[in-house]
Specification:
By secondary structure, this protein is mostly helical. It is built from 10 helices and no strands.
């Protein structure tokens, strides 16, 4: 995994947080530490040093490095949702929309911050923090709802057969993408292999469901 500079990374390119926001300054410094040393390998003292702020100043905004990382992840998930919404045009054919979703997924699955997130989940023992992390993940499940909306629209427009329950069809497609995403995340695939395989799955998916 490459080690980017101390910037809060957006899909496609680095982009700094708002430096006028003290919480963002702290989060930016913490992210640099997490990327360089892993989540479990980073201490609050490391974050204090990287931020140039006093320990008391940091504790005024965050009680722990767990809280800092949750703040980062909430912003990251929100940014991903906004980016996905920007890319998806529901006036396009269903196959085109799902193809764009595959491209988007291929980008975010390999984001270094997701590796840190897994380290965070393993390292954190605070039940309240883990509860908040699960709540953060629940918000990210919006992607599932979007796919279900896409499938329902495809059935409504006649692109897909009406003989199947849209919820079940969407769950099958989501499950396929999740399995492929896991292999990409684990390093079994590179991005191009993931996209090629996912598009074959999409073609098989449409061959079985498309109205011809």
């Amino acid at each position: 995994i490459s080690k980017p500079t101390s910037r809060f990374f957006f899909v496609g390119e680095g982009c700094p947080l708002d430096k006028t926001n003290k919480k963002d300054i702290i989060a930016d410094a913490a992210l640099k530490c997490y990327l360089n040393s892993s989540y479990s390998g980073t201490s609050m003292d490391d974050i204090v040093k990287a931020s140039g702020m006093s320990k008391g100043g940091i504790y005024w905004y965050f009680k722990s490095k767990d809280e800092i990382f949750l703040y980062i992840m909430e912003k990251k998930f929100e940014e991903w949702q906004q980016e996905l919404t920007r890319r998806i045009d529901f006036s396009e054919p269903t196959r085109v929309i799902l193809d764009k979703f595959i491209d988007f997924l291929a980008e975010i699955v390999v984001a270094p911050i997701l590796v840190i997130f897994h380290d965070f989940l393993i390292s954190t023992k605070d039940k309240e923090i883990l509860k908040k992390a699960r709540s953060c993940l629940d918000k990210y499940q919006h992607n599932d709802f979007m796919i279900k909306k896409i499938i329902k629209q495809g059935i409504a427009t006649g692109e897909l057969k009406k003989a199947f329950d849209p919820e079940t069809v969407a769950n099958i497609f989501i499950g396929s993408l999740e399995g492929l995403s896991l292999r990409l995340f684990a390093g079994c695939y590179d991005q191009e292999t993931f996209k090629r395989t996912a598009r074959v799955a999409l073609n098989v998916f449409f061959d079985g469901l498309a109205n011809k």
